[in-house]
Amino acid sequence: MKRQISFGQALATVVGSVIGAGVFFKIGTITAQTGSTSMTLFVWILAGIISIASGLTISEIAASLKINGAIKYLDYTYGRVWGFLFGWAQMIVYFPAQIGALSSIFGVQFVSLFGIKARYSNLIAILLVLFLLGINLIGTKFSSKMQSVITILKIIPKIIPIALIIIWGLFNPAKIPAPIIPLTVGTGHSFPTAISQGLLSALFAFEGWIVVTNLANEVKNPEKDLSRAIILGLSAITLIYVLINYTFMTVLPIDQLTNNNNAAFQASMKLFGQFGGKLVTVGILISVYGAVNAFMLTGMRTPYILAQDNLLPFSNKIGKANIHTGVPVVGAFIVDAIAIVMILLGNFTVLTDMLVFVMWTFNTMLSVAVIILRKREPELKRPFKVPWYPIIPIISVIGGIFIVVSTIINQFVLSIIGIGLTLLGLPIYYYMQKKNN
Asked: Using one digit for the tens of pLDDT, what is the confidence trace for 38-91?
């Protein structure tokens, strides 16, 4: 790959890849887990710090190895089975849960906006999945036109609702007190549990930071510009997330925010009135729509990639793309079918917590891989080295271990389901290895 991405382009990619719909909908879950405004803002800051450390750490692997993608990084460092399990987890947990969770919240916001009965929210969510699946299967010409429209619609609704809510919120004369010091938790909450569960929820809004590591081989001056782009980009996102959540907490009392998936809608109505609030909510819905489509486009290619290496049963069918559209049809049906099942069985919080837990298990392994490769291959050419080594990797590893272990302790059933779904890939892997041999 040519090194042609400037610092400005890298910074824009970081912000554009990470900032998304999660920030609008996690406030209800986090306030329920922390019980206080100060701890709610603290876990957003902590999530940003851990994401920055992990982004810098894993970028070293991306710049050093002449292979592309986290699956191959795990293959190289730990062996092929670990790369397969990561791809399997993406196929069966990460992408379906992302699609399912965002579609579910789309349904909740849609019925609230148009005054439809709440029981129809899951139906709306499933219809969204089926609609986007159909759009992506229609054909190359139509899909490319739709994707151009979606790309524009993804940028504008991200910026406008966030900017409006923050600016109006900061200058709102009728603010509700939202103390940020001292750092406390609500009555009936324990400090460690509030941090761990709140952090798990906040990290969902930072999902996408690992995409920035793909820039490592294309940035013109990786040693200088990549670290600046990651630090400045994720720091700016953290600040935005803190400000927008602070605004929500100065508009709605914390007891009205707790477990409220409609917090963004209700806060917008209070800030801008009925028409303005609905207009902002429409922008949020378009942003969610674009996010679901993006995860669908990427997710359907994961089983296709695994099948290309003959690692899945029926790889001869899954590993084929439609000759007219280039769409991996079977892969699309697999991921979207699982997503629909998750919509019916789960809820927004459960789905997002599970995908964060599973992905951070592998993210932690990737951070440890940097330390392993420094010891194992000291002569390896490293165009980008993680700054302040080994402090930054240690922060990333400790943060990842804390997320994984605390989830197992505090949400044992959820973690067992996530681990179980991931380990289901093992018998398939060894069966296919035996069959291939």
From this structure: 999 999 999 999 999 998 998 888 888 877 678 888 999 999 999 999 999 999
